[in-house]
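Go through this chain.

——
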Amino acid sequence: MSAHPHGHSHGLVDSSIRRSRAGLRAVLLSLLVLGVTAGIQAVVFVLSGSVALLADLIHNAGDALTAIPLGVAFLLRSRRAEGLAGLAVVLAIFVSAVVAGVESIRRLIEPNPPDHLAALAIAGVVGVLGNYLAARIRTRAGRRLQSSALLADGAHARADALVSAAVVLTAAVVALGAPVADPLIGLAICVAILRITRQSWLTVRHDVRHSAHHP
């Protein structure tokens, strides 16, 4: 006879609630980290006008906003919603790649070299640190909660740390007298983001298909 006669589903419900809360904590903490990162970078972009930094800034801001569908999915405690949130993450990454690419091409056609190079380098370092911290938060929670959407976002943020490092490289190369490096590195960032898009899609695709058959 059961030692818990007043409901056999209590443990399952409690586990679901705990998972929801843990997922929300990870999402909100990474949102805070990336929001602060993007805010600092926005100030430096206004000062420097660097298109490489703009590409990184747009990507970090979009990355922060992917917390919204992920947070909703954890609130709903729905694996299917998590799969759909993963698709929203992939879409956000792709859109940021397109915006970065268009702006970089425009800057190649209409050159406007960045200034305040020291601040630009600092903004790149801020991007590296912010994305690395967000990646740790998301990846640890994704493994613990077995969430492919969080794991995809963690891989996304890890790669973004490398993208931010390219902003530091931009500042160094422009300082050495090669201002064309700014839009060229912006285009390289665009290509890197497109690769991240494909990797993230491969990560979430299986869960989306699985959840369609097991909502």
